[in-house]
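Deliverable D5.2: sample structural annotation.
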Amino acid sequence: MKVQVERAALVQVLQRLQSITEKKTTMPILSNTLMRTLDENILEFSATDLELSLRTQMGAQMEAPGDRCVSAKKLLEIVRELPQDRIVLEMLDNGRIAMRAGRSRFELASSAAEDFPYVNFFEDLDFVTCNAAVFRSCLERTIYAVPSDEDPFSVAGLFCHPAENDLICFAASDGHRLAYSHMSADGMQALQLGEGIVIPRKGVQEILKVLEKETEVFLAAHENCLILKTMDALLKVQLLEAEFPEYRVIIPEERPFGFSVDKEVFHAALKRMAVLSNQKWRHVRFVIKNGVLELEAGDPELGRADDALDVEYEGDEFAVAFNIRYVVDAIQSAPGSQVRFEWVDQYHGGVFVGADDPSYLALIMPMVV
């Protein structure tokens, strides 16, 4: 194998592989990427941790075909330091990969392509077309509520399921808060979602990276996997075999009280409150009166913070406390310039919705302070 590639393009491709290649594993090959020439103009890279698999490609000038496995991390570190924009990659007789740019030269240990795990991307499936921007926004609005893998009491994934009115819904919950968003199916009915699929947190993160600069993406579901295809990448995500709780029953259908507020103004006030909060005293208290939202936070041993925002509200005084980080996450993810806060009473939690966009909702359970 011998190819010439552009340094900037190679760095971009290798960066995409880093979060998938396993750093701590009993299978060293999983920290490698498989490089393979496809034709005179294409160099393909594959990476997998056996739960996530990515295949991507870049333009190249091929002088000799071939394939080889090499450390994804070390290859990136070397390429970043090379001084020239044009790099030559060549497999040597001793089995190593040589990298040359100008007068700089590196050799990196490699292994046979046959050592790399076989990954079936199911490219022959019938893929459905999806608006990448809308799909990405739904994932971004809900991923913050996906619990960590270490949480034994919640499903550490994002639930995606079809619903009435030709919608695809997304929901995540860590037991203390719920994030929800939906999008129009727009031809995605053919996607085999059944009663719904659960995408692991890391899978959602990788999907977001693939969608970052795309306008259109093709999706397929098969054998407990979700496969995404773009012009230059294929991503396969192993889905979680977990039953997501019936989240819709905890969302109050009738929320008789509420007000809207400018999102940036609200966010700035919460950041001020957070200065005097900590791991022990992490709440912000809402006191809602006629025409005003009062915010209170702080650690009794450290200090206290108060602020007030004008709101359009007339009714009985209402007070409730929430984890301040949860509120910040909820309003940052809300679409538009206005966010609406709605409630029933101090027991049902608070609901944050996009003031002009009903496709987003966040429910936060109250704290006792």
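Annotation notes: The chain has three domains: 2-115, 128-248, 254-364. The longest strand covers residues 32-39.
The annotation will be released with the project's public dataset once the embargo ends.
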